[in-house]
Amino acid sequence: MKPLGKNGRKKLEKVHIRLRVNGEETEVAFAPHKTLLEVLREDLRLTGTKHGCELGECGCCAVLVDGRPVLSCLALGVAMEGHEITTVEGMAVGTELHPLQQTFAELGAAQCGYCTPGILLTAKALLETNSRPSRDEIKEALAGNLCRCTGYIKILEAVELAAARMAGGQAEPAKETIYGWE
Amino acid sequence: MMADNGPDAMFVAGGTDLYPNMKRRQQTPKVVIGLTHVNELRTAKGQPKDGVVLGANVTLSEVTNDPRIRDAYPAVARAAELISTPLLRNMGSIGGNLLLDTRCNYYDQNYEWRKAIHFCMKKDGEICWVAPSSPRCWAVQSSDCAPVMVAIGARVKLVSTSGERMITAAELYNDDGIRHLNKRPDELLTEIHLPPVNGWRATYWKLRRRGSFDFPVLGVAVWLKLSKDGTVEDSKIILGGVGSHPIQAITAERMIAGKKLTEELIRDAAQAAYQPAKPLDNTDFAMTWRKEMARFYVAGTLRELAAQN
Amino acid sequence: MAGNNGGKRGLRVVGKPFVKVDAKAKCIGELKYADDLFLPRMLHTKLLRSTVPHARIISIDVSKAKAYPGVHAALTGADLPPITYGALPVSEDEYPLAIGKVRMVGDPVAAIAAVDEDVATEALDLIDVQYEPLPVVTSIQDAYSMPEPRIHEYGELGNIHRRQVYEFGSVEAGFAEADHVREDITFYEGSTHLALEQHASLAQFSHDGKLTLWTSTQDMHYLHRHLAKVLEMPASHIRVIATPNGGGFGGKCDPFNHEIVVCKLAMVTGRPVKICLTREEVFYCHRGRHPVLMSTKTGYKKDGSITAMHHRTILDGGAYGGHGVASTFYTGILQPTTYTLPNYRFEAVRVFTNKAPCGPKRGHGTPQPRWAQEIQMDKIADHLGLDPAEIRKQHAIAPNSITANWIRIGTLSLRQCIDKVVAGSGWKDKFRKLPHGKGIGIACSAYMTGTQTPIYYNKLPHSGVQLKLDRSGGVCVFCGSAEIGQGSDSILAYIVAEVLGIDPFDIRVVTGDTDLTPVDLGSYSSRVTLMTGNAAIEAAERVRHMLREAVSAKLEVPGERLSFADRRVFDSQNPDKGVSFVDAVCLAEEKYGTLGTTGSYKPPAAPGKYKGSTIGPSPAFSCTAAIAEVEVHPETGIVVVPRVWIAHDIGQAINPVLAVGQIEGCVYMGLGEALMEEMTYRGNRNLVHKFPSFLEYKSPTTLEMCDVITYLVEEPDANGPFGAKEVGQGPQLPVPPAIANAIYDAVGVRVDEIPLTPDKVLKAIRAKAKGQEGRYGPSVFPTCPMPPAMVVPTPFQGGDGKALEREPAVSKK
Hints:
Chain A is α+β, with helices and mostly antiparallel strands. Helix content of chain A is about 30%, strand content about 15%.
């Protein structure tokens, strides 16, 4: 977070806390005014979490806190002690991609890829509470994540495809998704 | 802590309003006192027949998803779920939304931008740029929940080291862009008391550019008590987003009192209700169009509630 | 056709939906964008920006900032050589840090390098700048009426930056031939790219005197040249690495002041220096869509054929030149590429104003005139009582023709595109038949696949590719292109894999590094697939030739009988007889020594010979037809677009799923510009940007985005790799006019001004209800003194591509 007053801010002592990120305990020391976004990127070097505005107006920085998607640019790092944080780096299990990561790659749902981490995590949270969401439910859930490349369509299709696969099916994308209409 | 730091300190719950303002140096507290760990503020108590008490730190998502609120106070659930984005609603609190800072295109800008216009009356400057000859600030009341709480007659509890007090939601707000809250800085909003559900009905319509992210540029909350034959026994018509406080459309309320909501009466009431709306050129959309829309929205909300018979 | 071994049959990679080479890195958060880079001892930079729109700088005092703890350097314009730079050689009018004056709110005045961003920001507060304010030029009208003070000392006339007048054939003769003539004045508001990634750059200066810059740029090569010029260093000592762009859309094409500033700070401090712009600063970089006021006077016959067009444009350019001179050409020069247009006169003016500079955004200068023409076509069809889809189909330009302004068109399946969307949308059952409030509209476009000329004059290749192979069987492709999300890295892998008969996964792609990769001009003007693709084919075919010779000798099979497929090289008449690809490479390495080939590409010459004829021609033109369905609320004017049908002639999709994704992205961006996006300023409040933020600059969310029904029309073009043409920009063009035309079908009113906001729609509806003209839009087109036209006889008149007169339409700098 930026300095607070015109005359600068007194240098504050760093806080030293334990965070649980992607299932691992980690100790980190940082200035107490730092946002979760800054702690993740600058102190833990988990740069998969992106930023587009740092004002809560784009959704790029979304991470999961206790399974719920939140804006890491508006959360303070110090408030995260005792909470379970998941970033995009924590979605794959070993070498196995999360089904959403797989379908986003398959359908070109990540064009420039910059909004992708926030969208993947928001979609992951959705599928954990609603395993077969309708198109409208996916749109609602992702309405706080801006994307400028895709027009969202491949993203919505990728979430649907992942949901179908997670439900145990051998789902394949519709022909029109890949080749357009005849 | 608040007592120790005086006016340099601020309470913060979700932080979704205060932290962006701090980053832009609009609000510059030296100390912020976090409330997220105060568990008693995180619960909703009671049943609709007696009234439900919302802890101020209940998140907007929790308000939206609480079955009591969804079923018995759909206008509250609706207002909460129309706020910003799903991500923000997981963080922002109901109390924070009621205390939302007033907004203005001349104020919600970072330090350097505001410096370019020599700042404004609300922060660091002298003039209200949206109405330069005005002695007051015209920043806009932009909470979605505020007009609803005023319309349904909710009350809020304010607590400080010198005691606690209950006031109506209507009493919480002032018609001034700077001193928009009747709350001392050392007072903490702890609870929102929703009134018992006993036959009234209410709704909320929000106007904004997009289906998410955007603050209301008009919010219409209507509360009605109808007799069995559909006669209006009592009503509240509250306009949000078109002034510095939730505006009560008293003329329209009087016009419909004791009458049945015919299409003609609805049109007349809407015509009367849109007159006190004072949109200025400090939000999204053309201001004359926003004012026009107040008429359309009031008619729409009245029609919706009349049709619930 | 290049690369194509006998038509579409037998293609193994091209045309298939292979996963992008970088897709998984993007999905696991592994890909490093510029701001994800951290170097030991790295410093952070913040820029002090002007808070006044137009002023002389009296003094800048950075002494207190320099002394602030944690600050390592403070720079002003005086610390850099007084050398200007800018995207185009004809308008190099920018300094990295202001010298003498500032020209807009947001102009950088000083720079701080400090241990962290917080300290740098605090130090900015300690810099004292004294300004002497100058009158402010806020608009086109101001620029016309206020020749003084000039925003720049160069330009044509006061604050008029540029004027261009061309006449191809004779519009007067064309109008005389017409049954009707109509003139429409229209406006297209400016908009910005709003890429999610904020521009970021990291510079490192080594102690042996070499400079490295990692930066989110689309056009690394041009930036490289500007760095050499402004920093007064040999280009060979500078390495520019284009990091993957988190979205570009044209917004990262120009060389930027912050890129030069971090380099200088790295040179001054001896430490790595990074900058990441705030979202607000990205609005000040801008270079997005020009606001353009247009007057389009068109003569037409009863059958809807156009006899002549006199098209005039005025561009509000903002504070700097940038790509603006090219943008100015583009507001007129592609007008004749969609429908037959025998006589065409084009007049364009670009003005300077004290706002963020405009430049190339997706479609660069062409969505505005396309909008003007397509809504006028709808009015012409309406006036004549003709079906607007039919009239377009009937007069669509013929493939393999040359336009009135000497642009050669190759394949162009516009008629087929129209047929697709007409059938798919149920047009014939819907047009003028939907209930009040619902409507349907059509528009078309054509767009270039790369420009024929580079930005600075030279006869060098536009794109170069190197291939490296060794005994491991590994193939590495090197190319100077920049991956901005469009999939340019993947296209290289697909094309080389196709030619060599291996899998794209077998190929490593190295791009965007001036030390390692051969020059490619950059990711702009939809040039990348065609130009890098053709260069890659040439390099791969040269490799294939070497492998073929080596395997032929080994197997004693004639070279021409050898096939490359399935990671094997084998006798096509006896497929069991062959060697693995790895063995083939070993044989070639044995025969030729270390293996490496190059390929390069330069577009063919264009037929036009007049001055200015180099802008507009392209190796190949794509075309698009779009139909939009709208719902207009008659009481509020609110417009909802549920669905768009769009057919695009792409020549050959190298990867269909990526092509469809590009089209969907184009529809999205067109929808945003049509309905809500606008760059606007407070003219009476120091000309500040009204809302430089993600929240108040409105872009569509998932909830506003429409359904898109996409049709890929594949009519291979001889100039494209495997016949491929562009898809990244053209499909955006018809979307806004299709929506405007659908609004007319829905409620019978014309909104001749983008964006189509509800207040404008409602005003038009109210006007119509009162019996007035059901229209909202500009009605006055201001004029300024114009030079005489450059008159060029058309191909239809038997011209030779040269201008008649010698008078310059384009005056010198």
